[in-house]
Amino acid sequence: MLIVHRPHTDPWFNIAAEEHFLKNFQEDIFMLWQNEASIIVGKHQNTLAEINYQYVKGKGVPVIRRISGGGTVFHDLGNLNFTFIRNGEKGKLVDFRKFTDPILAVLNEMGVPAVFEGKNDLRVKGLKISGNAEHVFKNRVLHHGTLLFSSELTDLGKALKTKPDRFTDKAVKSNRGIVANICDFLEKPMEIEEFRNRIIKYIYKENNSGFYKMTAEDIWEIEKLKAEKYTSWKWNFGYSPNYSFSGFIPVNNGKTGFSLHVKKGLVSGLNILNDKPGNKLIELINKQIKGSPHEESSIRDCLVLIIDELGKFGFTIEEIVNYLF
Q1: What is the C-alpha separation between 26 and 95, in angstroms, rounded?
Q2: Domains and CATH numbers, the chain
Q3: What does the DSSP 8-state code read for residue 182?
Q4: CB–CB of 106/163 below 8 Å?
Q5: Strand (E) or helix (H) holding 247
Q6: What is the rounded average pLDDT of the residues 209-237?
Q7: What is the spatial distance between Cα 206 and Cα 278, in angstroms, rounded to a whole number?
Q8: Helical (H) or strand (E) element with 255
Q9: pLDDT by residue (tens digit) across 225-252?
Q10: When you count CB atoms within 10 A of the terminal residue's CB, does the N or C end of the chain come out lower?
Q11: What is the pLDDT of residues 292-312, one digit of tens each?
Q12: What distance in Å separates the CA atoms of residue 236 and residue 231, rounded to the nearest whole number?
């Protein structure tokens, strides 16, 4: 097994690196890595439904879709991510217990009474310290998980505070749980770097491992994948399953309800939900944004063409954009 040195904290690079090592190597691989503050959504999720969009936008937190399933997670430098990539027999590759057992062994050695609970969580006294997901590619499986060591849990809660009643879709939903940091359960205090080293030492000893440092070619290929896929709106947001988003726009002391429908990332229609004075405004907006990506800059560009009409209803472009997300 190769233990890959991963010093980068760029979340786009790190998510791209997993796909690179899964698809371009034949060896079994283990990696530990950290991301700057970011939100990582599952492959089959509706990104907008999983995040506190206005908070995330205001804080400039990157939102990135990964290739594995499962739910949305928050990363920061207080969170340590682990990745196993292994070869195996088709039909027998997915095994959450197999890949979390080594992590549990290290935690238990430290006196942290962590256990595997539910479908894919590691918990301590019922509190979630790790979420896990997997992706199968040919005869290889990628298993990765979070390890909340000393994360800013307040930031996590705010970033993932959602309004699920506003979205209708068939996307995979995150199973939210009460989270905790591993450092709070340690018998003796330690820094995250020591925690990392304890895990690497265990994996090295148990797997007859060797170390691998990324080459210039690896980095070039990962940066290329990052640029072409993982920084794109099309992958991170547009890949979401079809959905409807409901809301309202206050017009003439009334609230005109609407339902915005999105298919393959594009606005397919904006329907009026109640008979209020703003119906003409909704019809005007619908005509202009239909066929546009449900993405802020695209919607804004469409609305520029009717800026005068919006002004007659008492709205700016920015105000309308905020109601549509």
Answers
A1: 19
A2: 2-238 (3.30.930.10), 243-323 (3.30.390.50)
A3: G
A4: no
A5: strand 243-251
A6: 97
A7: 66
A8: strand 254-263
A9: 999 999 999 999 999 999 999 999 988 7
A10: C
A11: 999 999 999 999 999 999 999
A12: 7
